[in-house]
Amino acid sequence: MSRLRIFDESHPQAPLAVHHEHAAMAAELGKVGVRFEQWEASQPIAPGAGQDEVIAAYRADIDRLMSEQGYQAVDVISLAPDHPDRATLRQKFLSEHTHSEDEVRFFVAGSGQFTLHIAGKVYDILCEQGDLIGVPDGTRHWFDMSEAPSFVAIRLFTNKEGWVANFTGDEIARRFPRMQPRQAATG
Predict the structure, then answer these.
(1) CA end-to-end span of the chain
(2) The whole model's pTM is what?
């Protein structure tokens, strides 16, 4: 089940609010400029489907976002719990960072945890199958896929080659909850 927890940046033990309804999550995230949507496939996707089949199943929503936001490229990334580089890949984005372009992810299957640091608050979003999140460029955030990653996600880019993490050096991500393996197995 998707979840949004909102914390004061100084109090990682006690959320100020918790939401599980998509409409409430989208409304709260919209207040800080973050896109949160639910998508449905236009056709069934077989397990192990290739990138072209996955993109085709969501083509209408992808084209809408590309037209609205000017995204130029789309691809599909997939990680399984037995991936040999899972620990290295997880570690890569666990520290607070920004990007010079939006970070847009749609979870075709599985789950991932985006945590955003905006105006003194921390927005912890567990994204599950069917969730799209659009983190605006320059937003301080981190991403956790858990110790046992299990997801397939569509990514949209303005400039895929320019998508680089700029680390802030702030240690805030260490103080907030990580994605639990139990969560990674759902979706």
Answers:
(1) 7
(2) 0.93
